[in-house]
Amino acid sequence: MFEIFGIPSMALFGQLLIGLINGSFYALLSLGLAVIFGMLNIINFSHGAQYMMGAFAAYLLLKFTGLGYWPALIVAPLLVGLFGVVIERTMLRYLYKLDHLYGLLLTFGLALIIEGVARKNLGSAGLPYVLPDSLQGGHNLGFMFLPNYRAWVIVASLVVCFGTWFAIERTRLGAYLRAATENPTLVRAFGINVPVMITLTYGFGVALAAFAGVMAAPIYNVSPQMGSDLIIVVFAVVVIGGMGSILGAIITGFGLGVVEGLTKVFFPEASNTVIFVVMAIVLLVRPAGLFGRRA
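RE: above sequence
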């Protein structure tokens, strides 16, 4: 084992791996927030609760139906995304023309309700979720041990994040979505049902959070608090990247995960606050965020 800056390579690369894993979840969750805010102008504070719902959906599907991890990666996001569609149709649709504060307060209340219901019916203790058999074990790379499941989380997150960015920024569907937020009347003239498009966009953003929750279930204990513990950090990531910026959410999510991991090696006392320090500095220098557009 060799040393880098006086630190054993195993410890350094191990924390770097943890940072990449945390960054994977930061990127997925901030991507969902950016999609929802960029297309709907809603600050979705219930995103952490929907992340938790994805993890619990996977756990309950396994416990009561025997549905394993791989089917749950598809079924759980669809179920939670459908829940998001209901919320958008019955509540959020009336808030689009109002101040952002109304959407924030509504979704914050929803987060408290969802978390309270989960705690009452499922308990507050963490519940384990087993790793899929196909991703058990790992590989010894010499300078570190790489668990297969951790590698899968990083790769899957990269594929989903950049696939979403490509769909929104480089396809005709994405052009329609962006146009619908700027000039819905013109988009309707092309025969496109804008309300349905907006509803599906919110459902997709919620499904991204649930997808992250399913991938997090085997790594962290499934608990009602898992979303609330993460959502403040994710909002900081979104602010740093730029509210509504898809690419900013992805790059900033992974980047800050790595920064947080390395901080645990070189300055452990600051690891819990380094993201907020970065946010303060960025807001002082560039209030719109690193990738955001000035109003």
